[in-house]
Amino acid sequence: MARKRPKLIKERVPTPERPVGERVKDFGEVNLGYTFELAVKEAERCLQCPAEYAPCIKGCPVHINIPAFIGKLVEHRDDPDKAVEEALRIIWNDNILPAITGRVCPQEDQCEGVCVVGKVGTAVNIGKLERFVADYARERGIDRKLCESELKRVEPIGARVAVVGAGPAGLTCASELAKLGYDVTIYEALHEPGGVLAYGIPGFRLPREVLNCELDRMKELGVDVKTNYIVGRTVTIEDLLNEYDAVFIGTGAGTPKLLNIPGILLDRIYSANEFLTRINLMKAYKFPEYDTPIAVGKKVIVIGAGNTAMDAARSALRLGCDVTIAYRRGREDMSARIEEIEHAEEEGVKFEFFLTPVEFIGDENGKVKAVKFEKMKPLDERDSRGKRKIVGTGEYVTLEAETVIIAIGLEPNRILLEESGFKAKADGTLVVDENLMTSIPGVFAGGDAIRGEATVILAMGDGKRAAKAIHEYVQAKRIS
Ligand code: FAD
Ligand code: SF4
Ligand code: SF4
User: Fold this and answer.
1) What percent of the chain is modeled with pLDDT above 90?
2) What is the CATH number of domain 160-254+411-479?
3) Of all atoms in ligand 2, which is nearest to the CA of residue 63?
4) How many CB atoms lie within 10 A of CB 220?
5) Which end of the chain, N or C, is less packed with Cβ atoms under 10 Å?
6) Of all protein residues, whose CA lies closest to atom 5 belonging to ligand 2?
C-alpha cells in the first residue's frame, strides 16, 4: 500500500559516533550507524519523489531506486527483517556492495547532493540508510538468505573471463559475469583482494569484517581469486587471451605522484599509499606482533587535501602523532568527503592552507626535520575543475616535521602498458571505446585504470557496464 505523502522534516536524524577521546586511540569504526528505529525516523524524511523524476536516482552513478528502498523501511516498520530484506533486494539490483558504498561514497556530490529536501534543510541521509540496510542484513544473516535466492549462479555457459585486479571495478565485473554463468578468475597482484578498499581506506572508515563479508559473497558466486599474480610479469595479457574468451582490466591507479623538490629522498618521507598499506595491509601499528614496522616521529606533516590525505592524517594521529595537513589552496577546494574533513578536525588534525612545499630539510642522519613552504595567494579566477587559481607570494615559512606523508594524487602503474602496448593517455590511463574495450580486441577496462583517481562507485559502475559489454562480445564471437 502506498504511504501518505510525508511531511517535510528539515533536519536529518544524526548517526551515533564514538567519542573523540576514545576513537583516536584505536582503528575501530568511528560512525556507529543507525538502529532500526533511527533509520525509520530518517526514512520518513524522504518525500518519495516518483522514480521517473527523483533527482537522487539520477545523482547515483549506478541509479539505485532510492525512494523505493527507503520506502520499504517505513512501509514495513512493524517487521524490521522484512523491511530490510525488501530494501536490500532493491539495492542489490544496482549495487552489490552497499555496506561499502554507504560508508565511502562522496554522497554530498552524488545522491544526497541533489536530494530535494536538501534545498530547504539537510538532504535525506541516503548513504547511512544504505549502510544500515546492508549492516542489519549482514548481522541477521538476511543477506545470506537473499544471496541464495537472488544471487545464485545460473547454469555455466562454458565461457571463461579473466579479471585483472581485485578492486571494486574488477570485483563488480567478476560478480556480474558469474551471475550470467561465466567461469571467472581474478588475478590480483597483492596478497589480499579488495584494492584500495583493503590497502588504502583504514578500518576506522571501513572495518575489515565488512569488507571481508562482501568479498566472501563474490567467492560464493564461484569467482576464483588468485592473489600474488602480477599480470604483465607473472602472466601476460597474451597468455590470458589464449586461455580466456575475454579479459577485464581493473588495475586502478596505485602509483603515487611525488614532489620533485630538494630533499625528497630524505628518510621518513612516505607516499600516502606506502604509509597506508603498511598500516592497513601489514598491520604496522601492531609491530612486532606483525612483521612490518613503520617509523614515525612525533610531528607529522601530510601534504594534500583528498580522502587519501585525510586517511593518512587520521591514521598517523592514531599512532600518537601530532598531525598537520598542509594544502596549497583553501578549505573550500579540499576534495575529501566532508564527513572525513569534519572527523579529522574533531580528532585534532591541524590544517594549514595556502602553502606549497618547496624544500624538505634534513638532519645530519638524513632524516627529514622540517618542510619549507611558499605562501600562496588565491585569485578570483577558477581553473577547469572549478577550483580557485593560486599564485606564489614570494614569502616562505618553515614547519617542523619528523615525518612527511605525500598525498598529492595517484596514477595508473605502467606495467601493462610496457608489456602489452595498450593505447593510453599521457597520464597512463587506458584508452577505451564506448563499450569500455581497449585498443586490444577482447580486452576491456574500467575504474581508475581508465579514469585516473576517481571513486569506488564509479569503478563499480564501470565493472557492471563492462560485464554487459563482455557478455555481448563473447556471444557475438560465438555466433560468428
Ligand atoms: P583499485 O581499488 O585501485 O584496485 C586495483 C587492484 O588491481 C589493486 O588491488 C591492485 O593491487 C591490482 N593490480 C594493479 N596492477 C595489477 C597487475 N598488473 N596485476 C594484477 N593486479 C594488479 N573513493 C571513494 O569513493 N570514497 C572514498 O572515501 C575514497 N577514499 C580513498 C582513500 C584512499 C586512501 C585512496 C587511495 C582512494 C580512495 N578512494 C575513495 C578512491 C577509490 O578507492 C578508487 O577510485 C577505487 O578503489 C578504484 O577502484 P579500482 O577497482 O579501479 O582500483
Ligand atoms: Fe548514494 Fe553511493 Fe548509494 Fe548511489 S551507491 S545511492 S551514490 S551512497
Ligand atoms: Fe527522497 Fe530526496 Fe530522493 Fe526525493 S530526492 S526521493 S526526497 S531521497
Assistant:
1) 81
2) 3.50.50.60
3) 4
4) 16
5) N
6) 101
Q: At what angle do helices 66-75 and 36-43 cross, to 10 degrees?
A: 120
E strand or H helix at 357: strand 355-362
- The C-alpha atoms of residue 436 and residue 267 are separated, in whole angstroms, by 42
Q: Which of 67 and 420 is assigned the larger pLDDT?
A: 67
User: Is 46 near ligand 3, meaning CB less than 6 Å away?
Assistant: yes
Distance CA 205, CA 31 (A): 8
Is there a common fold for 20-150 and 160-254+411-479?
Answer: no
Pocket test for ligand 3, best of 3, 48, 125 (most atoms within 8 A of CB): 48
| Ligand 3 pocket member 121 (CB < 6 A) | no
- The CATH architecture of the domain made up of 20-150 is Orthogonal Bundle (1.10)
Mean pLDDT of 342-353: 96
**pTM, to two decimals:** 0.92
Q: Using pLDDT thresholds of 50, 70 and 90, give the confidence band for residue 96.
A: confident
The domain covering 258-408 belongs, at the CATH homologous superfamily level, to: FAD/NAD(P)-binding domain (3.50.50.60)
Q: Are 74 and 2 in contact (CB under 8 A)?
A: no
**Whole-angstrom distance, CA of residue 259 vs CA of residue 251:** 24
